[in-house]
Amino acid sequence: MISTLAGAEVPWTATTSASHSSSASSSSDSDSASLSEPVVEYDSEHGFELPRTGEGYTTRKGKDYRAKSTWYLKTFWQRTWSERVLGLLYRPEMESQYFITNVERGPIPTGNLVEDNAFIFSSGMAPILLQTAAYWAYPEFKWPLWFAGGVYSAFFAVFAATLVYRFNRDVLLYGVFDEKNFGRDRLADTGVFTVLRGISATIVFRTGLSFFMGYNPAENPLGSFSLSYPLRLVAFIVTYDYFFYAYHRSCHQFDSLWAIHQLHHTTKHPTILHAILADGFQEIIEIVLVPSFTCMLIPMSFAELWLTLIYMFAVEVGGHTGVRLHQSHPVLWFLKYVNMELCLEDHDLHHRNGKSGLCYGKQSRVWDQLFGTVGDRIETAGM
């Protein structure tokens, strides 16, 4: 059942109809009562708001000029094929277009590095162990490129979908950064196809890069790991982050390069789907060129590179969720002792800064610290 409410404080997390009525009766006492709040559709059956979007609505920071986002409100048969696919990943109740006034969440929790590493490592190792077991059981059958590519791509797609689920869960549990001032941006109607194209490109090229850089059907993937891998893993991520930092900072400082990056910055409060919202040239640079340059300096076997890219992908996605959680890099967590570790708030603040930038690193703050482009944290300052 959908009911329409005006000027009421609607909790961002799931509530009952009774709690919603209580918040509505107390809205006059809120510091937001002086604002002209939009009419909000409230789904009393599922317990979340379905706000209308577009010019003319008000947030704590003034008028809301964000692009129209209504695709997720359509029925399955009203949607385009792109909208139907994204609808499998989209959770409207995890986002609020407007600020939150009646939820006090307390201190920001700290993420569990052991749990994060267990999930990422097991997900990355799953296809490697499967191929190793298959080689042991059927030694005469070596996986050709086309077969191995299909298997690893499928595992990557499952990993990505599970990652989305986990971050969606965390958003509902912990809330989002800056939620007292501004809600998360919903994916605009005009960005649906672009994001779906980006998801497809990510699966194909992230998987394909590992194969291109060194897949050998005769090689047992598990046996290709060497004792030096942990050190090369750290070196690879930090080196990659330098190339990404140089490219990313250049995009913000030169208008000619900003043209290929500005689509990604059409959101100041991104969600997990916005991580893939990018211009085609940006996708090529970030998914293919930057990691390829890194591979030339830090050699890795096929299996080592695959696991490394799995780790890096998880960090990149997390930076666009806005989850109100102090979560450090699962590999480079030790950089916190020299104030160079990356946490979820860093990239969230980068988007809020727009073209002015700061926090250009994607995997660490090593190069931001060295070149003086670190931005001050707000909600996780001192953690």
Key descriptive features of the protein:
two-stranded antiparallel sheet; single chain; 383 residues; mainly alpha
How would you characterize this protein structure?
The longest helix is centred in the middle third of the chain and has 30 residues, at 145-174. Mean pLDDT is 80; it is low at 1-59. The chain is globular and about 60 Å long. It contains eleven helices and five strands, in the order βαββββαααααααααα. Helix 4 packs parallel to helix 9 (302-318). By secondary structure, it is mostly helical. Strand 4 (57-59) and strand 5 (62-64) form a beta hairpin. A three-stranded antiparallel β-sheet has the order 1-2-3, with no helix packed on it. A two-stranded antiparallel ribbon has the order 4-5.
Architecture blueprint of SSEs:
Layout: E1 2-6, H1 17-25, E2 39-43, E3 48-51, E4 57-59, E5 62-64, H2 81-87, H3 113-137, H4 145-174, H5 192-212, H6 229-253, H7 255-261, H8 280-297, H9 302-318, H10 344-353, H11 366-371
Antiparallel strand pairs: 1-2, 2-3, 4-5
